[in-house]
Design goal:
Strand order of the largest sheet: 1-2-3-4-5-6-7
Oligomer: single chain
Shape: elongated
Distance between the termini: 40 Å
Strand content: 5-15%
Structural class: alpha/beta
Helix content: 40-55%
Length: 638
């Protein structure tokens, strides 16, 4: 029966996580509540998912405010209503427009105005006046007493206790960059927003049963439900799934000629196997969108690198999304896509820092600004930053704050020091402000505003209020468009060569690079400075130990230096076996069956594929089942 609840995503105002808010509301007897964070929808999808655990029917809305001056609350009757609220918030935030005293026409919504803000006037069918406990005393003297059918309970739920209220005041002082002692009353709310039990709320309004019933009726009419873990990304690249798979096959056949000239039977069989699985799992659109992005890059002469588990795909290789031949390196497609995996395929594509913004702009123009968005994230307070900010609002000098950071022992500090320490721990982990994911772009089948309002950050593109975990939960899969400065240098080099020698070099044709004697010599001697990923001192030392002059040895080196392999002792064993033929022979004689399937890495499990391979051959699992076991094992370890 609450229509104005705030989580800590009412940034620098609210103090409770969505889960703890639901826990508190349930404990106080509420079964039907509306989450209405201030100008924010970050918690909406999570709130709906979590509410069932607490036997609460969730309603979604937005508390529209200029600063903390509440203008009105919008509640969504359904998904269309939630979209309308998100679009309204998005439009105002894009254009930096203040909210008016009267809401615009918002279809499929209820609009509730604060009692203190609205004089007696005619209201639309979907508009109501909300009244707080503290305002009940004024009702008999107001003209609104004649229109009780238009009144609802508007008791904000923001704090669990006095401590939460104190945190609220600290957050408001931070937001206003003032000392706590000088925080204006107009920039904070009162302790009356502490959540009270539902029975106590009903008792307070017992003389106005019509108001109680109106509130119940509004909440009963509202229902926003999301389907979780179902694909909501763009479903078709062309007009239908059938056209998509036809185009995908067509482009793969072109790729066969480019990559192999006359492909072997093994290559064609692998391509057909992958196309069948991509078709069955409905991922043809995902591949074609990535193909479209790299096609645009080719047309503009932008160098790029496709990496990640996408390198396990022959289709990705044929589409020139990646430059790794998975058969040459014995990479399993099942590590990238298989029926047991709930997560979608994931390509990481690096572009030069000079080109990424143009690539992003192309994606937005091609797939629509209403259906495309950068993936959001949150900047949270860590303990040190919270301590520094709280110290500032308490008026502590910089050297005193530094002393507290160096000496966090509670008992050894004075009264103010103890308060700073205590509250910095409480604020640690709370979201401070919205930010942006390093590379993720969402392309949705429906307009993004069905799931979130968006805001504009300095990059100039719409950005969701939710993060990657919520995006995965709801089924919006990201395209990773990253930036790498080294590619800018490669682009410059290609342009210099074109100018000086009038030669156009195809850097996707990596077979030429593999056989280049000078490249082999540089790698073998560890001269890889300014080469992305292999330029660290540790990596260059490893290249010299392995005499890594060929492509496969370079790949092995980049894998065994990873923390998991290095810590397990497999890196050391791999190096020893490489350098000592007798040690290799002993390993072969001790476990001939294992050595046979891991001959490339001297019987040492270096790659994830090696683990899958062992499970496949020795446990009789299919490759898909082996991949599944690998990931379950990782989860158990974590």
């Amino acid at each position: 029966m609450l229509i104005n609840c705030h989580s800590w995503f009412s940034l620098k105002y609210g103090t409770i996580s969505p889960e703890n808010l639901l826990e508190e509301l349930s404990a106080k007897g509420f079964t039907n509540v509306a989450l209405t964070d201030i100008n924010n929808t970050s918690a909406s999808i999570d709130f709906v998912r979590l509410a069932e655990q607490f036997n609460i029917k969730p309603v979604l809305g937005i508390d529209f405010r200029n600063g903390i001056d509440q203008k009105y609350i919008g509640l969504a009757k359904n998904m269309e209503g939630f979209r309308a609220l998100n679009e309204h918030l998005t439009t105002c935030q894009y254009n930096k427009i203040q909210f008016e005293n009267v809401a615009p026409e918002l279809h499929d919504t209820f609009v509730i105005y604060p009692f203190k803000n609205r004089k007696y006037s005619q209201l639309k069918d979907n508009e109501f006046i909300g009244i707080k406990l503290s305002e009940l005393i004024k009702l008999p003297f107001s003209d609104w007493r004649k229109q009780l059918n238009k009144l609802v309970i508007l008791q904000p739920a923001t704090f669990r206790n006095k401590r939460d209220y104190n945190i609220h005041r600290l957050l408001r002082a931070m937001d206003n960059n003032v000392l706590l002692s000088r925080l204006p009353l107009s920039e904070q709310t009162s302790a009356s927003e502490i959540i009270i039990p539902e029975m106590e709320l009903k008792k307070a309004f017992k003389e106005y049963p019509e108001i109680i019933q109106n509130t119940k009726n509004i909440l009963a009419e509202c229902s926003v439900e999301f389907e979780y873990r179902t694909n909501k990304s763009k479903k078709c690249f062309l007009k239908s799934h059938e056209e998509d798979i036809k185009l995908l096959r067509q482009e793969c056949k072109k790729g066969l000629k480019y990559r192999f000239g006359k492909p072997s039977k093994e290559v064609v069989v692998r391509m057909e196997k992958e196309l069948k699985m991509i078709d069955e799992l409905g991922f043809s659109s995902y591949f074609l969108i990535n193909w479209d992005i790299v096609n645009y890059a080719h047309s503009k002469g932008y160098p790029y690198v496709g990496r990640g588990s996408g390198a396990n795909s022959m289709v990705a290789y044929l589409l020139r999304i990646t430059n790794v031949d998975p058969i040459e390196l014995d990479l399993y497609f099942e590590r990238f896509i298989n029926p047991f995996r709930s997560n979608p395929p994931d390509f990481d594509i690096d572009f030069s820092w000079t080109d990424r913004d143009d690539i992003t702009d192309y994606i937005f123009k091609k797939y629509g600004w209403d259906k495309t968005a950068l993936l959001g994230s949150y900047i949270t307070f860590d303990h040190k930053s919270a301590l520094r900010e709280i110290g500032k609002v308490f008026g502590l000098p910089a050297d005193e704050i530094t002393r507290l950071q160096k000496n966090p022992i509670l008992q050894e500090n004075d009264q103010y020091g103890k308060l700073v320490m205590q509250y910095s721990k409480l604020i640690s982990g709370m979201p401070s402000h919205l930010s942006i994911h390093a590379s993720g772009i969402l392309i949705s089948e429906k307009p993004i505003n069905y799931y979130s309002a968006t805001h504009i950050l300095p990059k100039g593109f719409p950005t969701t209020h939710f993060d990657m975990h919520v995006a995965e939960d709801i089924g919006l899969y990201k395209f990773d468009i990253l930036s790498q400065r080294g590619l800018g240098k490669i682009k410059d080099a290609l342009e210099i060569i074109k100018t000086n020698r009038n030669e156009k070099i195809d850097i996707d044709n990596i077979n030429v690079v593999k056989e280049e004697p000078m490249v082999k010599s540089l790698l073998k001697n560890g001269k890889a400075i300014a080469c992305f990923y292999v330029e660290s001192p540790a990596m260059r030392m490893l290249l010299t130990k392995l005499k890594a002059e060929d492509y496969k040895r370079l790949v092995a080196a980049s894998s065994i230096i990873r923390p998991g392999v290095a810590k397990s002792g497999m890196m050391r064993e791999y190096i020893l076996r490489f350098q000592d033929e007798k040690r290799r022979e002993k390993a072969r004689n001790d476990l001939p069956e294992l050595y046979k399937i891991l001959e490339e890495t001297f019987g040492v499990m270096v790659y994830q594929e090696d683990v899958i391979k062992v499970a496949h051959y020795f446990a009789g699992l299919t490759l898909s089942e082996a991949d599944r076991k690998y990931h379950f094992g990782n989860m158990d370890t974590d």
